[in-house]
Amino acid sequence: MRYLLGLIIGAATLWLLLSGVYKPIVLGLGGFSVLFCAYVCHRMGIVDRESVPLHLLARVPLYALWLGGEIAKSNWDVAKRIVLPGRRISPTIVRLRAHQSSELGQAVFANSITLTPGTVTVALRSGDAIVHAITADNATDMEGGDMDQRVRRLERPFGAPARREASQ
After folding, report:
1. In sequence order, which residues have a C-beta less than 8 Å from that of residue 20 and are 6 or more positions away?
2. Which tens digits make up the pLDDT trace of 77-99?
3. Contacts of 77 (CB under 8 A, 6+ apart)
4. What is the sign of the dihedral through the CA atoms of 117, 148, 167 and 97?
5. How does DSSP assign 11-63, residue by residue?
6. Could you give the dihedral angle defined by the CA atoms of residues 8, 11, 13 and 15, in that order, rounded to the nearest 10 degrees?
7. CA-to-CA distance for 118 and 138, rounded, in angstroms?
8. Which residues contact 71 (CB under 8 A, 6 or more apart)?
9. Residue percentage of the chain with pLDDT more than 90
10. Could you list the residue ranges that cross the membrane (predicted)?
11. Residue 41: C-alpha distances to residues 6, 17, 34, 59, 144 (Å)
């Protein structure tokens, strides 16, 4: 029941932020559409911990700030490579092990890599992310596993001890 309520609150909040129209008729139609979608999702049996990740809400802002910093640093590096002469690229493809415990965690990991300029997740299969990087340095940084560890921390339940896994 709490996931259904979380879905309704989340969808209504998103709808209000994106619509920008607060007339009574539009609010009524928006409320109806949110409730109808929640009803359909509930009937389909897809309202659960994975589809409505309430457990991530407290950690997402810190992760978003960290990811924003990584995006800014990578953007600056790519811009320098474009503008300054002599800055070479060395395109590389690497296979990274995604140690996340859920498909949602693996998707966040892969999308975080893709959002970072200079890197693109080409494929995500059975826990392995195939990543294209514009430089070997970018690939080496990713193999260090900082992003992997941060996404694992993001998806970890509150109060659970941190797991240590060796990078492969």
Report:
1. none
2. 999 988 988 888 889 999 999 89
3. 117, 118, 138
4. negative
5. HHHHHHHHH----HHHHHHHHHHHHHHHHHHHHHT--STTTS-GGGTTTHHHH
6. -140
7. 8
8. 115, 116, 117
9. 47
10. none
11. 12, 22, 11, 25, 39
**pTM summary value:** 0.71
Q: Give the tokens for residue 38.
A: 């929640």
One-letter identity of residue 111:
N
Taking CA 68 as the corner, what is the angle to CA 108 and CA 71, rounded to the nearest 5 degrees? 85
How many Cβ atoms sit within 10 Å of the Cβ of residue 96? 23
Kindly tell me the burial class for residue 9, based on how many C-beta atoms sit within 10 Å of its own C-beta (0-12, 13-18, 19 or more).
middle
Instruction: Extract the tokens encoding 47.
Output: 């309202």
What value does the mean pLDDT of the chain take?
86
Does the pLDDT value for residue 20 go beyond 70?
yes
H or E, element range at 80: helix 60-83
Per the model's pLDDT, the better-predicted residue between 146 and 50 turns out to be 146
Structure tokens at 3: 């996931």
